[in-house]
UniProtKB/TrEMBL annotation, chains A, B, C, D:
UniProt enzyme class: hydrolase
Active site: 236
Organism: Saccharothrix tamanrassetensis
Keywords, ordered alphabetically: Hydrolase, One-carbon metabolism, Purine biosynthesis
Entry protein name: Formyltetrahydrofolate deformylase
Example GO biological process: one-carbon metabolic process
Family: Belongs to the PurU family.
Domain of life where this protein originates: Bacteria
Signal peptide (residue range): none
NCBIfam families for the chain: PRK06027.1, PurU
Catalytic activity entry: (6R)-10-formyltetrahydrofolate + H2O = (6S)-5,6,7,8-tetrahydrofolate + formate + H(+)
Length: 291, 291, 291, 291
């Protein structure tokens, strides 16, 4: 596939008022900025303005550092506080994947990376079991096994410390819990806020917690789903990035629901991760704007 | 549309064992029964067998009463207890609709009836408000206004007594809560068990109770849905007949979600009602088999 | 439902170049224009820029006529030629519906209008059969019966002349072929270009022309669909506004497919019509941008 | 995952008449056959009866060979001619995959096999390019590179002969064209009839032949799809096993449509292959019954 040209991506949010678009677009136009893609949204409930702009890097007379500095002044002027970012698609995205025994999301993501559909570096895969070491290494990616002992708070604390170290060394743009079966401690949730993505195997807020397909079967629902969301300290309550569902019926046993649901988990996680890495997800409170 | 020929519909459930299909199909074959449609299911969890058979009425040498008597003997022999029915498509289905102010489900059902897509008699429409009297009567259907006074337990009890009378006089095959905003008393739930259908404007079990679209908006979900279920004493907990969803995004305000959700409510209720009236829904515990 | 405040809607297209957004948004900002909703798109294949802006009417110091004049200058400057419009949501939309015998789309649209979901005036319904006169008049809308004689070219020509007159007197914003079974003459297609919407009962470009459900059944497809498109002189080839599908299987006879398909026809037409009336559909060549 | 118990699968079709179900189910009941799953269908257009039965192997007093012989007598008696089969789930399914350069379907199928979701033997992968040799061999599966020279009829004939040999040596239950970009010669279509499955990257019958996403983009459709079908001599005209679609809009370039479509291709092919290998697909004329 041909590489798309290098772009700078601006994401921005502030209280709405007249003239914001004019201010931002005039700034870009002044410097010859060629906008590849632009999206705007105003949330009427909170009166909050959001935008995302993709600008061709070679259309501007300066680099990303100076763009960041200059745009930062406008952001301050408009009252955006910390709600803005300028990123550079020329910087390759780094991802760390956390897994357990179930491999479907891992196989799917590795396949997308290998076929250049998802053009990122998987810096490492870390598993609390070693079942998925083989396929990971077959893709030329380091695999680390970090066991999480049950009923051993100290041992678990040490494991999380090791996990954090193995992750943080890569300064990843995304930490993906690709059916990782451990609940992150509050502290890690905070440190990785806005970068840790989970795939939950239900259509949240239905069936929070363990064994959602069993819960779904018990309730007799006619669709099962999956949810990709940012990880927060409260289990399965973080801002939702993407969801989808698939139809089931009375002929579907729990293993059938698990199997059908996996196809949804895979695409929902892949979409959510792509949008996150392309800076398309703006979080506001517990909601997301997806540009 | 040409009328389909008259059929007898057998629905049946019993503990699974070898030879049930042979017993039932041999009985029908002996008498020349021409099976139009047959479906079988065994639930491996509860080891329960289900079947539904449609037989051409004119292929049998006897009428529905004798079929019921003869089949009843087989049902007893196979241990079905009360879990079987024989119905006659020659008996027109009667439906009573309960409504409030929101008309989209009523308009939809009346349109389906008027265009003979849903070939039933709407015996009456009963509203706790009179907003929908006009369109109901324009379709030649009686409308009854039964107000439900707020904060007046006795008045409400009287209203429910009147409602029951207005419904029961028609001995309806289905009592449809087509966005009826009153919670039925336990006693009515019991008396109408298996015949009272509700449309709830969320993808249950998410967002039980009041203002589900508001709840959905607050949680930031990416799909909203609707659920058609049998009414039981526990609110929004009855066996689910049908569900569906529609995509929403950050540009959708609550009124947008309400509007989009209505399209799902309408089709989910229409499908659920059709299946119920065609004796396609077999309830087992809190689950349904849809044949 | 509370009325949304009055807005002016600008739609605009021109060859892409740097600074268009800045030009338009600065113009609006200068006059205090409060943008409720804004969308932009650039088609990289044709290098064509599109935008749609909703501005609060009361935020501007002048009315729609002056906005049109002032914005027109900018449009000329940017080379938009005729590819721009300024409309006023304060002007109620008028719609004429053309029908035949099948009523599902008509019932659906009338229900949406009656429940204020679709807040428009249905100026008239015109049928080549009179089957749907009753329901139309029950909604207080004039119905005209214009028979189209088969195998009588002159009679048909006269009928089309009468049809045109009955439509044009209302200067409608949309002429909706709501399962109207007559093919419009080229001349009418030209005169109503961009305002005549058809609902075709297949997922185009599959199954162009007559009896698409029969064609779909013959091919053994696993989904059937519907397409809302602008009418052009070439049958079923106009720019597509909206499409959707529903699953069918081997148990579905042709009448079952017809019935299931109707639910899709109704929502696809209702969505397409809403977007058209809200000036959300920008046509470019044979493609549409839906803002 | 626990292995399901061994079952015999009977598929059967014949002209409909009274008593077929009784005949087959009585035969099974006589010998104590425990039916795990049973499905029946009658096509009213062609008056053809279809059934599929799964029987626990250990419930019958004889093996698959004797079941085949005994059931064969009943099949002859009922006029099924060649339209019946008895298969044994104890015989592991063998699959050969044909690929080209695009790996998404191959990655997906290998992931499903490796995670035991699709519990089959991939006997070989054969590519007309060698791009996918690495991932294939990483899964421990033989890869054969058979180049197909352009504009060299004799060379191509030789290549097809080699392909046939490499496939036939495995006597596969399925030959899967997993985005194999060569059109099979008529003779191979005939020899592999009912066993060769193709995934076409459009919602057939739309966009037959080359570059369907380009065709779809040109037509401005709002959904793109994929179709899994049996290969027949007429290109993209074989009986359809499964189809699905995904929504696209004006922001999707052709590469975006290709990317989104791949997710549909993968699941549609995986579902179609599973159903085929479980003997759930009964072909009748150009239509399929999926049990």
């Amino acid at each position: 596939m041909p590489q798309p040209e290098r772009r700078y991506v601006i994401t921005f949010g502030c209280p709405d008022r007249t003239g914001i678009v004019a201010r931002i677009s005039s700034f870009l136009a002044e410097h010859g900025g060629w906008i590849i893609e632009a999206a705007y949204h105003t949330d009427p409930t909170t009166n909050w303005f959001f935008t995302r702009q993709e600008v061709r890097a070679d259309s501007l007379p300066f680099g990303v550092a100076e763009l960041r500095e200059r745009f930062g002044r406008i952001a301050r002027e408009l009252g955006a506080n910390a709600n803005w970012r300028v990123t550079d698609t020329g910087e390759r995205r780094r991802v760390v994947l956390l897994v357990s025994k179930e491999g479907h999301c891992l196989y799917d993501l590795l396949g997308r990376v290998a076929s250049h559909e998802l053009d990122v570096d998987v810096s490492a895969v870390i598993g609390n079991h070693s079942d998925l070491a083989g396929i990971t290494r077959a893709h030329g990616i380091p695999f680390h096994h970090v066991p999480f002992p049950a009923n051993d708070p100290e041992g678990r604390q040490a494991a999380f410390a090791q996990l954090r170290q193995l992750v943080d060394v890569h300064r990843p743009h995304a930490v993906v819990l690709a059916r990782f079966m451990q609940i992150l401690p509050t502290e890690l949730c905070a440190d990785w806020a806005g970068r840790a993505l989970n795939i939950h195997h239900s259509f949240l807020p239905s069936f929070v917690g363990a064994r959602p397909y069993h819960q779904a079967h018990g309730r007799g629902v006619k669709l099962v789903g999956a949810t990709c969301h940012y990880v927060t300290a409260e289990l399965d309550q973080g801002p939702i990035i993407e969801q989808d569902v698939i139809r089931v019926d009375h002929t579907d046993s729990i293993p059938d629901m698990v199997r059908k649901g996996r196809d949804i988990e895979k695409v929902v996680l892949a979409r959510g991760l792509r949008w996150h890495l392309e800076d398309r997800v703006l979080v506001h409170g517990n909601q997301t704007v997806i540009f």
